[in-house]
Amino acid sequence: MAKDKLTDYDSTASNNTDVGGISVAEGMLPSGVNNAIREQMSHLKDFAAGTSGVDVLKLQDDTDTNSIKLQAPASVTANTTFTLPDGDGTADQVLKTDGSGQLGFADRHPNPSLIINGAMQVWQRGTSVSSQTSSGYKTADRWYTNGSGGTYNQSQQTVTLGDSTIGDFKYFLRHEVTTGDDFTGILYRIEDVQSVPEGTVTLSFYAKGTNPNSGHFEMIARQDFGTGGSPSSDVIQTAQDVTLTTSWQRFELQITVPSISGKTLGTNGDSYYQLQFTQPSDDDSSDAWTLDITGVKLEVGSTATDFVHQSSYGDELRRCQRYFQSFETGRVNTSLVSVASSTSQAVINMPLQVEPRALASYDGALASGTFTKTGTVAVNAFPSNGDNVTSIAFWVCNSTEISVGLNTSATLVQYNGYMTRIGGSAGETVFTLDVEL
């Protein structure tokens, strides 16, 4: 067979008896050899021009031991030319095409995170608690604490400026267990079991601290199918061990999420997917330990990508306010107009900052959660700074407004309007709306 292109040549020299149909067998006259050489040069020209080439380009290492191969697909639908960029990009950039074969470097676009407030930016409830024994949402927004049987402190901490081991984070959550228990730890709940798709998801986070007696703490994932759902709670990933040091480390854990086919969701919109950071169940319940954590990200797929910060603090705050809203005064004695619904109750309308997670039908109470008076409120009590509201009631007006009934010790005239003062100090939190999972 005539050897008309480079891929026809044989790796055994004695088998190459012709070039382009010209015999170069041993003993051929010089003129035949010269013609074969010229034919071979034309093949190399075609290769250089890209009009004739090889299926695989093999790049051998310096010792001829191993190689890297670039290979075309088995079937190519159209001729395609890729043009490489001039020079290198920057660290972590990737090659992308403009759709016409011109390659260039671009910043990698990481997957979005299923975690809200993973960078520990928002702290509407406060920045610290101490000697806690109960469970609940205590400090950083969206982060629940399971305090059953243990005692703990929790606080907002600031990342050291210029700390290259952790990157561009400002805050982290410190969860300090002073008296341990098997269930003491922090949890994160993602709204709706169906929000976390079937398949592999990847959890990544930065952490440091001290370990319980067994030398590690655990990350557990579970699905909860809500009130009336089945199963009520389903552990899908148990005891992924993480060993802390006193320096920041980035951890990456893969979680396999099973299908929810055949399972039943509840009817109150209270199903959730939960991540739990806790001490091991076989640990000494008296152990003290500390967890510093930030940069928490859960993403679809088996590869952890870079953490992406929200464009502003306000964006992250609004995402948190779907679950918890605090109503604060901008100055001392903020004034609102109320209308007396009876001789002992005045009603004010409070605007909602975002639509809450759980609303009942309009003109009814919240479907779940609580609206609580936490600060100073006085009806028709100027200029006194006292608080004359003994209890409150509330109703949902619409997706942007809530009506609050202020039951007061003051004597009112039904249907009259009154000036109502909220907040005895600037920045005081007067009401909170909690519709957390």
Description:
The chain is 7% helix and 39% strand. With 437 residues, the chain is mainly beta. The strands form 7 sheets. It has a 6-stranded antiparallel beta sheet with strand order 7-10-11-18-13-16, with no helix packed on it. The chain has a 6-stranded antiparallel beta sheet with strand order 8-9-12-17-14-15, with no helix packed on it. A hairpin with a 6-residue loop joins strand 3 and strand 4. The mean pLDDT is 88.
Notable characteristics:
single chain; 437 residues; Jelly Rolls; mainly beta; six-stranded antiparallel β-sheet
Number of domains: 3
Helix count from the secondary structure assignment: 2
Beta-strand residue fraction: 35-45%
Which blocks of ≥5 consecutive residues have pLDDT under 50? none
The percent range for helix content is under 10%
Shape: elongated
